């Protein structure tokens, strides 16, 4: 199966579909990553907060796929915001993952109430310039957060990973990302099954002969989004990847677009402060 590729604004290329490893134990992660690579995935999305970076690196080493063929992402967690703290956190991530570089490193949340994300971004710019990470980006950033980063540093993120699914289509933020040349990547792309029973989804699935999950993943792909569904189940991993072969009509795309109701499964980036949940 040919993987569609996306070109980032720094000229580097990234597979459009990958798989995430959130909520997978460090012990299980090597098996899941190696199996995903065997099936044909070439993008693995991790994060310090997931607690399985060691397993991520081990899974890549256990695979028969060459390191240069795998696009590896990790993310800086909230307790390491700030320039120097971010540099130390990156060192810790690299020690855990055991790779010589990352392909993409993201600020996990803007945390505007902490007001440290610009200095954190300066640290990521330094890491990129030193060649320790090839591309840098953000996650859960809104237009104001992006504008401030760019205004104060002159560096545009390569990618913005946001919660995005049929119940939260994020059309305005997607338009902002597109205008800036920032790739939009969807987390929780299936919305935890929230739209699986919607007629717009079941109707398309029945016509094509595929699953509701495949319909929704294809909706992301046809919108030009990068998408990172996660699963520990080998059959589900294969099913998700096979969504690349599905094709939706314009009417089906529009019907799924109309499912938007502004429903978040995660925090609002404008108000989220991880310290409140400690």
TrEMBL record:
Positions of the catalytic residues: 50
Protein name: Aldo/keto reductase
Entry keywords, A to Z: NADP, Oxidoreductase
Ligand binding (substrate): 108
Disordered as annotated region, ranges: 259-278
Entries under PROSITE patterns matching the protein: ALDOKETO_REDUCTASE_1
Signal peptide stretch: none
Reaction(s) the record says it catalyses: hydroxyacetone + NADP(+) = methylglyoxal + NADPH + H(+)
Family stated for the protein in its record: Belongs to the aldo/keto reductase family.
Domain of life: Bacteria
Species per Swiss-Prot/TrEMBL record: Paracoccus liaowanqingii
GO MF, any single term: oxidoreductase activity, acting on the CH-OH group of donors, NAD or NADP as acceptor
Domain NADP-dependent oxidoreductase: 17-260
Site (Lowers pKa of active site Tyr): 75
Pfam annotation, one family: Aldo_ket_red
């Amino acid at each position: 199966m040919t993987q569609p590729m996306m070109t980032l604004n720094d000229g580097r290329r990234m597979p459009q579909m990958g798989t995430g490893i959130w909520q997978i134990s460090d012990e299980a992660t090597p098996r899941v990553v190696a199996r995903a690579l065997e099936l044909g995935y070439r993008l693995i999305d991790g994060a310090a907060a997931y607690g399985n970076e060691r397993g991520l690196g081990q899974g890549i080493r256990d695979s028969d796929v060459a390191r240069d063929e795998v696009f590896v992402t990790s993310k800086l967690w909230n307790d390491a915001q700030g320039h120097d703290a971010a540099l130390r956190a990156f060192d810790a991530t690299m020690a855990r993952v055991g790779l010589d570089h990352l392909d993409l490193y993201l600020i996990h949340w803007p945390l505007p109430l902490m007001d440290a994300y610009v200095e954190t971004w300066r640290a990521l710019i330094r890491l990129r310039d030193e060649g320790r990470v090839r591309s840098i980006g953000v996650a859960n950033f809104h237009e104001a957060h992006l504008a401030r980063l760019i205004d104060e540093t002159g560096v545009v993120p390569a990618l913005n990973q946001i919660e995005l699914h049929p119940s939260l289509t994020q059309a305005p933020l997607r338009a902002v990302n597109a205008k800036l040349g920032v790739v939009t990547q969807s987390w929780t792309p299936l919305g935890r099954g929230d739209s699986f029973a919607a007629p717009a989804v079941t109707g398309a699935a029945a016509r094509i002969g595929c699953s509701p999950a495949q319909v929704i993943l294809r909706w992301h792909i046809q919108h030009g989004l990068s998408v990172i569904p996660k699963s520990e189940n080998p059959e589900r991993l294969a099913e998700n990847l096979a969504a690349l072969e599905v094709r939706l009509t314009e009417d089906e795309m529009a019907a799924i677009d109309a499912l938007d109701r502004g429903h978040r499964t995660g925090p609002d980036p404008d108000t989220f402060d991880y310290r409140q949940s400690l």
